[in-house]
Amino acid sequence: MSFPRCALLWARLPPGRQPGPRAAICSALRAHTGPFPGTLGRVPAVACASSSASGGSKSPNTSLFVPLTVKPQGRSADGDVGAELTRPLDKNEVKKILDKFYKRKEIQKLSADYGLDARLFHQAFISFRNYIMQSHSLDVDIHIILNDICFSAAHVDDLFPFFLRHAKQIFPVLECKDDLRKISDLRIPPNWYPEARVLQRKIIFHSGPTNSGKTYHAIQKYLSAKSGVYCGPLKLLAHEIFEKSNAAGVPCDLVTGEERVTVEPDGKQAAHVACTVEMCSVTTPYEVAVIDEIQMIKDPARGWAWTRALLGLCAEEIHLCGESAAIDLVTELMYTTGEDVEVRTYKRLTPIFVLDHALESLDNLRPGDCIVCFSKNDIYSVSRQIEIRGLESAVIYGSLPPGTKLAQARKFNDPGDPCKILVATDAVGMGLNLSIRRIIFYSLMKPSINEKGEKEIEPITTSQALQIAGRAGRFSSKFKEGEVTTMNREDLSLLKEILNRPVDPIKS
Q1: What are the angstrom distances between the C-alpha of 224 and each of 214, 221, 227?
Q2: Cα–Cα distances in Å, from 52 out to 55, 106, 115?
Q3: Residue range 339-364: average pLDDT?
Q4: Phi, psi at residue 119, to the nearest 5°?
Q5: For the segment 4-59, what is each residue's pLDDT rounded down to a tens digit?
Q6: Contact by Cβ (8 Å): 223, 245
Q7: Minimal CA–CA distance to 337: which of 310, 358, 373, 304?
Q8: H helices then E strands: how many in the chain?
Q9: What phi and psi values does residue 436 have, to the nearest 5 degrees?
Q10: Which DSSP category does 374 fall into?
């Protein structure tokens, strides 16, 4: 500390007065217009913040905090300036002052506001006392404060800023406590993505049922942009956009949890990328981003990935494709980021009908039929029974390698291939372009994992039923209308009931 500042501190302390503890500290702090290393200039604000932030929160475990050693000061080449300004300190008086300081409840409480629990406070005080008692010459500022306390010209609590400075020297983690608190505050998710927050993104929600062209319009914007990212729910969809983009002359990379494919010969990243939503980058800037099946944001297991993409993608335009049930939730989320949502509504391009009769037997299968099963055992059983009848079938389920799924989809879609029957899981409901005339639900009961990790078997939801049934009679296929039924007669009335229920808005 400079000599003028030291003199200013000394001069401003009123002789003969013993101000209260907080007032005295604030008085001393006002004198120090420039901060001591890491402490005095901001003590009041940090104290208030620490006190309020720690209220009601669990105290951290400080048993692993190891104090650093601060050596006492030796003899100064300039002599003992503090003693020349005042008088040499009586070590016995100083020890009494320090013991009184240690015992004051106000000091212990104020120390706790700065993260010094009883254990750290005791360790810091022992080190502080040893430093004071064993130093041949002290800094001018603390020497003057101790001398004034001896003559009752200052209060013992005025030692606190010096004690706190010493505590932060032996426990450096206290210096960054506020920074640690800020970066560990996860209450406001939009703030987790600072790169996205500096942009004023344009959010466009393409809302509509399956086979309404909503994803098509979003992909057209993606292909015409200088750079873009497609975020899909399935590896198969990411592959589809990857191939479609490159076929259209737009170089596009592929990123999934299993593979990374770059199209540039030197391995350089292309301006466009198709990925599964979990693998999207929230730090790479894009002109256009497409987030497909946004209603998956409600999924207990995977919904985090859609939330992350929605809040974190650094794109000038973000196109969301999905059910209208997600509009309100998305709008509320974007309200927290200060971004407006433009909603574009689409209607189904081809009609779809629920039949009045169930299939009942695999002998009644026709070309273009797709049997949807919710377990692998059912898929294997149905595909074997179809083969026994001399028919060829394609099989698609989630854990198949992407290349195999694509090959099976091409086989089923190829007019010249004898394979005209498809057996699949509900993976077909996620936007796959398949030439299906009739969807047949083998069962309406689907196993799922609840929030406790327990397996449950429940009827499919209206949203799931609409997604799957909507794959029949797609606009781009040769079938201009779609049909939906069940395998078993007793399931047909339940299917109609499920499809006629309104889709509840997504709440969380």
Answers
A1: 16, 5, 9
A2: 5, 17, 12
A3: 94
A4: -65, -50
A5: 444 434 444 444 433 343 333 334 333 333 333 333 333 333 333 333 334 444 55
A6: yes
A7: 310
A8: 19, 16
A9: -110, 135
A10: S
